[in-house]
Write a structure and sequence with these properties.
The structure holds two protein chains of two kinds. By secondary structure, chain A is mainly α. Helices cover 61% and strands 4% of the residues of chain A. Chain B has a two-stranded antiparallel ribbon with strand order 1-2. The two termini of chain B are 20 Å apart. The chains are: A mainly alpha, B mainly alpha.
Chain lengths: 76, 587
């Protein structure tokens, strides 16, 4: 994924979304503190993604994943 | 009686398919589901079909806003699914899918417990044949596991219904969470029975075990009906049951974790059925009008985009013959239109603005916020990160764009791509014009998805996830493994236990047979010659050997279930026919 235009487009959308959020932050009706924290969803998306990948892979490797023929299923 | 029951139309279409061939059958396949959709569209609460039995008045067709919206989407997806499978020449598969869809419509429009149960079981039986039409040994074995789980679930539901009707005396469906004095056992038996069909962990493993083993056309139907019918029944019977809120949140995350580990494309999609149904189940648990609206809207949208995703995976499997991420990659150039249509489904399930998942998923999450449930709100948002990660990024990257493995897909039947196009069109149309769906929800809607904070929040979440994916791309490739799930219990430790029980029973049987043979061996001479008792006492004693048929059986105790299935199945079939005839006779 070494496509500079993709990175540039992503960065522009990030910047645009944060600006929009800062401009419109008083229009929304936040119930929880994280809904009114600027760029929270960006960070949550990033941290959540990392957490899900590493957590799931860890669980898989230490516990859940087995050889493909574990159940002795027919090949076809 | 007025108006037509959409489910019964599909049963007639199935009959039509069985009786026709060639172009006529193809015409029946196109016209039948369209007629069903038209019939569902025209239904109003004034329409009804009832059947008077000696003790009960059955309501075969009862329409309200909730059943109407489910009836519409079930009829619509039948049209799309049949179009996708239009090229399939096997009449058996068409018949199974049409009966399955008809039974799902039967559940949705059922007004009483008996009707609901009968269609519920018919759905289980028809879907079993959809799975078996996969045609492989794997689908055969998975089908039997599916049958056992669903018969168990259906039995729980029936026990609950009988307990409830015996206590209450009223056969009309009503919300158990709002009815006075529901027997505790009836409540839990019914909830467990429905939870099995809703695939709530740990009762969910039948789904991911079987859906990838059906034919590519069959799994489109499977993805639509069983779990969503269960969601409908949960909304009807258990709105506001708090246990469902937490069960739903766990479901949403459970599917996400397994999807990250999964290598089989359709099994990965199946894990995300569990995850998405988790949103609906959680919303039913919240029980507020907005949450119930969210559950219905999400079921409607989910059926469309999940069918589209299964159709995309099916086209890839048909084209390449491969189903695993470790075997796929680099085919985007060969099927750009399929990639584009798949991405519409992927954006929809991920909740990208302007696609239909956005207008329904955000409703469920907002309902959690409205009810001041911080933990469910933040965890359901986390599940939506996992959805975009697996379906929006991992799956398309490794199927279409990943390392080129030299695959050159065969041409696909055109009708498959047209059906995908129709699905994609509807996903986008609903995303752009949510008002059409909102107007058909059970409660008045005061929710606006396209506010600045909703859109910005969704975009930031997606961008953050995309960044995480980009950084961890090397870790996300498929691994040639299977992930053990709760079906491990009945596929591993329970197998030797069952075998030990069977072998013990057979040993006991063999010992009794041996004893019987020994007894007969001793008695035969006396039967052959009643005077032997006299002679035996004298010097003329002689040994008479018993015929070979009475020799003790060889010590062959290995158990092969396939050997007994046909005779036992035929016996059970005739017993059922007998009881059904008796029941009809006494009506």
């Amino acid at each position: 994924m070494k496509r500079p235009w993709l990175i540039a487009a992503g960065a522009m959308m990030v910047a645009l979304s944060v600006v929009l959020e800062l401009v419109s932050r008083h229009q929304g009706h936040a119930t929880f503190w994280w809904q009114s924290t600027p760029a929270f969803d960006l960070l949550y998306g990033f941290a959540g993604c990392i957490g899900i990948v590493l957590g799931s892979k860890w669980l898989g490797h230490v516990w859940l994943q087995r050889d493909e023929n574990y159940y002795g299923d027919p090949k076809s | 009686m007025s108006s037509l029951h959409p489910g019964f139309i599909l049963f007639l279409v199935a009959l039509g398919v069985a009786l026709t061939r060639g172009h006529v059958r193809r015409l029946v396949l196109l016209a039948g589901p369209l007629l069903t959709l038209l019939a569902a569209w025209q239904l109003t609460p004034a329409n009804g079909w009832s059947l008077a039995l000696p003790q009960y008045q059955l309501q075969l067709l009862q329409v309200d806003a909730l059943s109407h919206v489910f009836g519409l989407i079930f009829s619509l997806i039948t049209c799309i699914g049949v179009l996708y499978a239009w090229h399939v020449s096997c009449a058996g598969e068409h018949i199974a899918t049409l009966v399955y869809a008809g039974a799902a419509l039967g559940v949705v429009f059922a007004g009483d417990w008996m009707t609901l149960f009968v269609f519920w079981e018919l759905m289980a039986v028809a879907s079993l044949f959809v799975i078996w039409n996969g045609g492989s040994n794997r689908s055969w074995s998975a089908g039997f596991r599916y049958l056992l789980v669903h018969i168990f679930g259906g039995s729980l539901l029936l026990c609950g219904i009988l307990l409830y009707v015996a206590h209450d005396g009223d056969v009309n469906l009503q919300a158990l969470t709002r009815a006075p004095q529901v027997p505790v056992a009836a409540f839990w038996l019914m909830l467990l029975g429905v939870a099995i069909n809703a695939a709530i962990p740990p009762l969910h493993a039948w789904l991911t075990d079987t859906y990838p083993e059906a034919s590519v056309t069959g799994s489109v139907f499977l993805s639509a009906f069983t779990t969503k019918t269960a969601v409908y029944v949960l909304i009807r019977l258990f709105p506001g049951a708090e246990i469902l809120l937490w069960a739903g949140v766990i479901m949403a995350l459970y599917g996400v974790v397994y999807a990250v580990l999964e290598n089989d494309t359709r099994r990965l999609l199946a894990y995300h059925i569990i995850s998405q149904v988790g949103y609906m189940v959680a919303a039913v648990g919240m029980g507020t009008p907005m949450a119930i609206n969210g559950a219905v809207a999400h079921a409607f949208c989910h059926i469309l985009y999940k069918a589209l995703l299964f159709m995309g995976a099916g086209v890839v499997i048909v084209g390449t013959g491969k189903r695993k991420l470790t075997e796929l990659g680099g085919i985007a150039q060969c099927m750009p239109l399929v990639v584009m249509l798949y991405m519409v489904g992927a954006f929809s399930i991920s909740g990208v603005p302007l696609f239909n998942g956005f207008i329904s998923k955000s409703m469920v999450i907002s309902a959690a916020a409205q009810k001041h449930l911080p933990l469910p709100e933040i965890l359901l948002t986390l599940a939506s990160i996992g959805t975009f990660l697996s379906i929006g990024l991992k799956l398309p990257y490794f199927i279409f764009f990943g390392p080129d493995r030299g695959l050159r897909p065969r041409p696909r039947p055109r009708n498959m791509v047209v059906a995908m196009g129709l699905g994609a069109l509807l996903c986008t149309a609903l995303g752009v014009f949510p008002g059409w769906l909102y107007a058909r929800l059970p409660f008045p809607v005061a929710y606006h998805p396209y506010t600045v904070d909703h859109v910005v929040s969704a975009l930031q979440l997606l961008l953050g996830t995309g960044l995480g994916f980009w950084l961890l791309l090397s870790k996300l490739g498929g691994e040639p493994t299977v992930s053990t799930d709760t079906d491990w219990v009945y596929r591993k430790p329970l197998v030797p236990v069952c075998n030990a029980m069977i072998v013990t029973a057979r040993r006991l049987g063999a010992s009794l047979e041996q004893a019987r043979t020994t007894l007969l061996r001793g008695l035969i001479p006396y039967v052959q010659n009643p005077f032997l008792a006299w002679t035996r006492l004298g010097p003329n004693w002689r040994v008479v050997t018993c015929p070979p048929a009475l020799q003790a059986p060889a010590d062959d105790l290995t158990y092969d279930e396939n050997r007994y299935r046909l005779p036992i199945g035929v016996t059970v079939f005739w017993i059922v026919v007998f009881f059904a005839s008796m029941a009809l006779y006494t009506l």
